[in-house]
């Protein structure tokens, strides 16, 4: 972040011009790459019309883990997401933390390190057993992250970041088991690998563990990071800027992810696909037209930044054809990929009619045995913990020559507060 080098000067026209030290990026509240730029380069002009717009596209700092390009989609430390989708999840985590891909020895050492960190205090699981079953799985996660902090934080951002990545597998697997009533916790075996152990500990009744593992390995990598300015990432970093620990910061981040406008889109997309009730392409096209003419939404299409099909969706469509090509809901989602885009393109006001990452992810999870959509945001959170903790390490430990980003403190302009007195 830029700190004392930013300049904000109100003018007579009530506009605010802000000069920052990097180039404009693409996220809602934009975090920017590390290209060398002049400290005096003006990047963005803020006028009154920008107030109360959620900081959308305001450049506020730099991000070193990922970026989102309107044409190419998300990349991690320069690597397109499609290149990384089939890597070991641990290799992608290593990349976000260390900014280079591991060689085989580094990867083996990193996997062993994560496995050694994976132990969760039994009191955390005992508290989970006392939580109300009607609480949303994300509310359980928010509580669980705080419990992990109470029972195992070191106060070191890097150490606690990796501890959180490693221990979240057992925490989230037990949220599934305990809240769903699937039985007693299954003992952890971190030597299996992060996602492999997660699937093992979930013990999803009736699921094909091999297919579920293949899906969740890819799902984890695809959802790990998405620039610096999305709500959950920005919230986590903002809380950490006050020197709150990783566990508290991630609890706040997951509260942001819990909201229906952020992390629950894959859940809504699955419900939408279910509502189509046909696999016939012509009937699907008519359904899309009828939905739009009735003022409804087509879930899973469009993106705030992208102007092409989300590469993460492309990866998932291919994976779906491999692991669940005969599933009726997947067939519906696959036909939507063509017919919904065709209809949406007819509206010149729609800048991106293409599928996003959520268009098919819920359908794949459902076909793989995870049929309760309330848990899908939990899986999103499991993956995103890696990216947010890595970004917190960058901001707290590495940026500004090791001094870290200052505490977040934006400015609000008073409204409807003319001076008045009692009496």
Q: Could you tell me the radius of gyration in angstroms?
A: 22 Å
Number of E-type strands: 8
Report the principal-axis shape.
globular
Helix content: 40-55%
What is the H-and-E element order? Answer: EEEEEEEEHHHHHHHHHHHHHHHH
Question: Structural class, please?
Answer: mainly alpha
- How far is it from the N-terminal to the C-terminal residue, by CA? 46 Å
Strand content: 5-15%
List keywords for this structure.
16 helices, 423 residues, mainly alpha, 3-stranded antiparallel β-sheet, disordered N terminus, globular, 49% helix
Summarize the structure.
The protein contains 16 helices and eight strands. It has 423 residues and is mostly helical.
Could you please describe the fold and organization of this structure?
With 423 residues, the protein is mostly helical. 49% of the residues lie in helices and 8% in strands. The protein has helices at residues 81-84, 89-98, 104-116, 122-128, 137-152, 157-180, 194-202, 209-222, 231-241, 246-258, 265-276, 281-293, 311-323, 328-344, 358-367, 376-398; strands spanning 7-10, 16-19, 29-32, 42-46, 58-62, 66-69, 73-76, 79-80. The protein has a 3-stranded antiparallel beta sheet, with no helix packed on it. Strands 6-7-8 form a 3-stranded antiparallel beta sheet. A two-stranded parallel ribbon has the order 3-5. The termini are far apart.
């Amino acid at each position: 972040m830029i700190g004392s080098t930013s300049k904000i000067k109100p003018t007579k026209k009530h506009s605010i011009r802000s000069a920052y030290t990097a180039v404009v990026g693409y996220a809602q509240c934009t975090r920017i790459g590390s290209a060398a730029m002049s400290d005096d380069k003006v990047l963005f002009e803020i006028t009154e019309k920008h107030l109360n717009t959620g900081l959308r596209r305001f450049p506020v700092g730099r991000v070193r883990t990922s970026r989102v390009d309107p044409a190419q989609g998300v990349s991690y430390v320069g690597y397109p997401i499609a290149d990384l989708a089939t890597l070991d999840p641990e290799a992608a985590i290593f990349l976000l933390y260390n900014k280079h891909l591991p060689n085989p020895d580094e990867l083996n050492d990193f996997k062993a390190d994560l496995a050694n960190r994976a132990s969760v205090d039994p009191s955390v699981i005992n508290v989970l057993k006392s939580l109300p079953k009607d609480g949303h799985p994300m509310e359980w996660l928010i509580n669980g992250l705080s419990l992990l902090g109470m029972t195992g934080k070191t106060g070191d951002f890097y150490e606690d970041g990796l501890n959180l990545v490693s221990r979240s597998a057992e925490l989230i697997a037990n949220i599934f088991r305990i809240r769903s009533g699937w039985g007693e916790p299954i003992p952890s075996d971190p030597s299996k690998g992060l996602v492999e152990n997660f699937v093992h500990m979930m013990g999803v009744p009736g699921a094909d563990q091999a297919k579920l593992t293949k899906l969740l390995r890819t799902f984890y990598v695809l959802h790990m990071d998405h620039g610096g300015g999305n709500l959950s990432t920005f919230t986590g970093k903002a809380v950490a800027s006050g020197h709150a620990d990783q566990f508290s910061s991630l609890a706040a981040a997951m509260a942001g992810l819990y909201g229906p406008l952020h992390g629950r889109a894959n859940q809504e997309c699955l419900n939408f696909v279910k509502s189509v009730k046909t696999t016939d392409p012509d009937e699907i096209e008519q359904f899309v037209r009828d939905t739009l003419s009735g003022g409804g939404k087509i879930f899973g299409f469009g993106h705030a930044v992208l102007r092409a099909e989300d590469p993460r969706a492309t990866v998932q469509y291919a994976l779906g054809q491999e692991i669940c090509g005969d599933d009726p809901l997947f067939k519906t989602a696959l036909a939507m990929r063509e017919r919904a885009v065709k209809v949406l393109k007819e509206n010149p006001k729609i800048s991106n009619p293409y599928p996003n990452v959520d268009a098919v992810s819920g359908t794949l999870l459902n076909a793989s045995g995870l049929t309760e959509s309330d848990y899908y945001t939990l899986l999103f959170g499991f993956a995103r913990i890696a990216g947010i903790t890595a970004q917190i390490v960058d901001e707290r430990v590495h940026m500004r020559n090791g001094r870290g980003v200052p505490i977040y403190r934006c400015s609000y302009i008073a409204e409807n507060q003319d001076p008045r007195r009692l009496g």
